[in-house]
Amino acid sequence: MAMSMPKIRIIANACLTRCDSGEGQIIPIVDSYNMSSEDRDLVLAQIHTKRPEMEETQSPA
Hints:
Layout: H1 5-20, H2 26-31, H3 37-50
């Protein structure tokens, strides 16, 4: 079962914060949360909604 949308938004914001603080690229940061592929896709979609330019730096999963 997918995570709730509030949890998805929290994780997406945490990933953006970590990326902004220089911890690395967005994909490895998202993958460090060890989520199901469905949740991972939802987090990446939320990140893209907030920061469309992040999609350009994503590598294929």
